[in-house]
Amino acid sequence: MKVLITGAKGQLGGALRRTAPDSTLITALDAEQCDLTDSGALREKVASENPDILINAAAYTAVDKAESEEELARSINADAVGVMANALDQSGGKLVHVSTDFVFDGTSPLAYQPEDQKAPVSAYGRTKAEGEGHLRAGDLLVRTAWVYEAGGANFVRTMIRLMKERDELNVVVDQIGAPTLATGLAQTIWALVGRGAEGTYHHSDAGVASWYDFAVAISEEALALGLIDTKPRIRPIATEEYPTPAQRPAFSLLDCSKTRMVLADEPVHWRENLRRMLKEEKALG
């Protein structure tokens, strides 16, 4: 099976390469090798590679910056997806697209099902929702949330850096979801591809957390591993106390039961995966 992966240098792109089945022939592209804002070059690249599967792990993810750069975000998160789908129409390949909990408005009292109505509240969310609209029958959409990985640019590593610098941190307590280890997400994507899955699926780690809960857990696990010397005071604050250009969904927990049922596997709790990531982070030095 010939697979083309975009976003090669991202957290998920790296995890997809590390966990790829032995039977796959991988070509992985980063932004330097394929500019997703250049529709012509992107179309030519997909055509020349002629993949059986194209996994689009690339995205414009600067949530706040997207408020002032919505057209740039749209060109990467939406327009490029349409180009990929169109190019694959010619070759017969399948598109596997990764999206986000930000396509929802966060007002649901229950975890979001794959088929729930989208209602994004930010430019980033709008462009990701538009990207989903370019998928064809037979393609695969996998939504996820709060992704992190050892060595990547993410909330966990930012918290550890700040915990080394400060005695007290303020972290939002009224935004609820579930963290997701990129390695587990990649393994789920490969498993869905292997089963020929089509349509929309969700993947995040088991459990529920606020950003405050996540930060507290990071401090406890990091202290136990010697990644920080002392545990700072972490103060829970409301979203209104930490204003940002982009609105975030207050509740964006994803219901992953369909995914787990199809794959017949057990979800890993986010705290267990956090511990795993921090051990890998320590090994990286």
TrEMBL record:
BP GO annotations: dTDP-rhamnose biosynthetic process
Reaction equation(s) it catalyzes: dTDP-beta-L-rhamnose + NADP(+) = dTDP-4-dehydro-beta-L-rhamnose + NADPH + H(+)
EC number annotated for this UniProt entry: 1.1.1.133
Cellular component, GO annotation: cytosol
Cofactor requirement: Mg(2+)
Entry's cofactor comment: Binds 1 Mg(2+) ion per monomer.
Signal sequence extent: none
Protein name stated in the entry: dTDP-4-dehydrorhamnose reductase
Source organism per UniProt: Erythrobacter crassostreae
Gene behind the chain: rfbD
